[in-house]
Amino acid sequence: MPGATVAAVQAAPVFLDRDATVDKACALIREAGRAGARLVAFPEVFVPGFPHWIYLDRPQANEHYFVELVREAVDVPGPATEALGGAARDAGAWVVIGVNERSRRSAGELFNTNLVFGPDGALAGWHRKLMPTYAEKMIWSFGDGSTLRVYDTPLGRLGTLCCGENTNPLARFTLIAQGEQIHVANYPARPAGDAVDLAYNIQIRAAAHAFEGKCYVVVAGSLLPARESHAPHGDPRRLRASRRGPHPGRLRGRGRTSRRAVSWELAPMSMVSVRRESMRPISRPCRWRTEASGSARRSVSHRNRGQS
Fold first, then answer.
1. Helix axes 18-34, 79-91, angle to 10 degrees
2. Choosing from 24, 26, 31, 44, which is the catalytic residue?
3. For a designed S-S bond to 220, which of 156, 178, 186, 252 qualifies (C-beta 3.0 to 4.6 A apart)?
4. What is the pLDDT of residues 95-134, one digit of tens each?
5. CA–CA separation, 42 vs 175, rounded Å?
6. Which residue in 26, 162, 163, 215 is the catalytic one?
7. Any catalytic annotation for residue 129?
8. CATH number reported for the structural domain that contains residue 221 in this entry
9. Is position 48 within any domain?
């Protein structure tokens, strides 16, 4: 498995605007490619955003948001995938990006889908989330096992799962059994005041999959803008960002960094470290470490405050 540079994009979509979000994603893909990235990973349903309203109010009050989401969803294949493939080709990189996929078999049916593009710009395949989590079942249909596959790439065998299905033992085993070497796990942001410590949950999930699968895990999480314009009933407190995505604040690693992305190298014969810093104190500081020796790889160590 050769060394490579990977970019995990942490950015906010242009919410419920497919074309603008695709344009933003294409710009980020090309930027990562210029920085030397050969794999670019995006958050869950980055295009055109995560339906946060499902956790904020009763369904009847938010039906118009679902209508807008269906209108702005992605046809696969379609103009949006053509644009994303063109950006992947320009960057010379593999790209994994989450989209709201509009079904061709039923009006109003959506899937939570990760698209996989090759460096030639072709749509190599896609994975539909098997089981939407909690209230997500009001938005997305179920996927099936036919999309649980790995892709042979010059970087290694690439696989991907969406958010909560990274806790699904059989889905994870299916990829591990195919010899997965690089795993992309993508996640949404969470609104302020959420009781779920998603960052801590992700640390556990990524560590478990990396350790059990002897593979690299690339985590890409979304962000919320300082204020979301779609807050229900015009109340900005309903969906105010805390600047906490799955990775609060800024990521630093070996390579180019920004508040939008972090890139680091997959080096089979050397140690690679990625350290996370927050723009405000967090309850569980952590250190991510990936160690590699020959073909066997181990990851990740997590340390809570007060523990050795």
1. 10
2. 44
3. 186
4. 999 999 999 998 899 999 999 999 999 999 999 999 999 9
5. 19
6. 163
7. yes
8. 3.60.110.10
9. yes
